């Protein structure tokens, strides 16, 4: 978790550098499209601060009021980031309308485009770091921040192409149009971030292939038991909670049943990080006979 916090702090530094470059590009050119790119970078910095605070809260150990820990704090940060993206999109649309009704020529376009291009390359490199490290650390906040930066890279590339077209063609109305199109794209990306984060807050299950792999491992390492049923999983930040009922012969001792549970847990944790496992042992007479048959 300390590593995740350091990466989140790095995002703030990178975001401030990128914001400075993009604000300079907008100030030099007066382009509405470049303003839209700078506005999204403001969100990036704010989102980086929120992500760092969420990661610090998520690192707090479980306590009496939060016996399952504080990992879900990361999902809240991702929701807040999605809301910030939506707010930025609305601000860009307002600026685009103003630029459309009060058109102004783009000043020093080459210098502005050069500054924007440098910031875009920096964002691309850092987005790749965030996504790769976030997945390895099982951090929804870092992954969400990385995907947001990647969408920023796409919009920045589109903005650069559009500003170039304005300069070449002299059609000033293309500038606010491009800004509006950027706002719509940003709005869609914000909606996706909110959707994925709400899924985590609502205890969404892991991907189907992960659940199937869990079922397979349980079946392969539960020798001595009869079946497992009512298997349920949910995500909570870095952790995945798993629970199921394990049916054993009625005459089996508690010690032997516990040994089977230990074997299953060891196999699952050896292959999957961040698993919190709860197994309820049942005697054969309670079996539902509709679960995972033990191989």
From TrEMBL:
Residues 207-284 form the Cation efflux protein cytoplasmic domain. It is found in: Cell membrane. Gene3D superfamilies: Cation efflux protein transmembrane domain, Cation efflux protein, cytoplasmic domain. Its main location: membrane. One of its GO terms (cellular component) is plasma membrane. The chain crosses the membrane at residues 12-35, 41-63, 75-97, 109-131, 152-171, 177-194. It is a multi-pass membrane protein. Keywords: Cell membrane, Membrane, Transmembrane, Transmembrane helix, Transport. One of its GO terms (molecular function) is zinc efflux antiporter activity. GO terms for biological process: intracellular zinc ion homeostasis. The keyword Cell membrane applies. Residues 11-202 form the Cation efflux protein transmembrane domain. The keyword Transmembrane helix applies. Belongs to the cation diffusion facilitator (CDF) transporter (TC 2.A.4) family. This is Protein p34. It comes from Limobrevibacterium gyesilva.
């Amino acid at each position: 978790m300390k590593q995740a916090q350091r990466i989140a702090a790095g995002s703030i530094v990178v975001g401030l550098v990128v914001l400075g470059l993009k604000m300079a590009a907008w100030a030099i050119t007066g382009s509405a499209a470049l303003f839209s790119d700078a506005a999204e970078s403001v969100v990036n910095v704010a989102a980086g601060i929120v992500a760092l605070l969420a990661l610090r809260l998520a690192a707090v150990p479980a306590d009496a009021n939060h016996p399952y820990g504080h990992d879900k704090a990361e999902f809240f940060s991702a929701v807040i980031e999605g809301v910030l993206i939506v707010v930025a999109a609305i601000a860009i649309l307002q600026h685009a309308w103003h630029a459309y009704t009060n058109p102004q020529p783009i000043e020093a376009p080459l210098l502005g485009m050069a500054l924007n291009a440098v910031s875009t390359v920096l964002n691309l490199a850092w987005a790749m770091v965030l996504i790769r490290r976030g997945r390895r650390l099982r951090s929804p906040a870092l992954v969400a921040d990385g995907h947001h930066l990647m969408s920023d890279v796409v919009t920045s590339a589109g903005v650069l192409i559009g500003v170039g077209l304005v300069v070449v063609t002299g059609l000033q109305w293309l500038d606010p149009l491009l800004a509006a199109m950027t706002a719509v794209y940003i709005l869609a990306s914000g909606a996706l971030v909110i959707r994925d984060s709400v899924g985590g807050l609502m205890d969404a299950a892991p991907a189907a292939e992960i659940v199937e792999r869990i079922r397979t491992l349980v079946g392969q390492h539960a020798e001595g038991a009869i079946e497992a049923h009512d298997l349920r999983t949910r995500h909570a930040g870095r952790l995945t909670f798993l629970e199921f009922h394990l049916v054993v012969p009625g005459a089996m001792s508690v010690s032997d049943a516990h040994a089977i549970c230990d074997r299953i847990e060891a196999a699952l944790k050896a292959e999957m990080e961040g698993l919190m496992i709860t197994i309820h042992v049942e005697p054969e007479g309670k079996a539902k006979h509709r679960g995972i048959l033990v191989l």
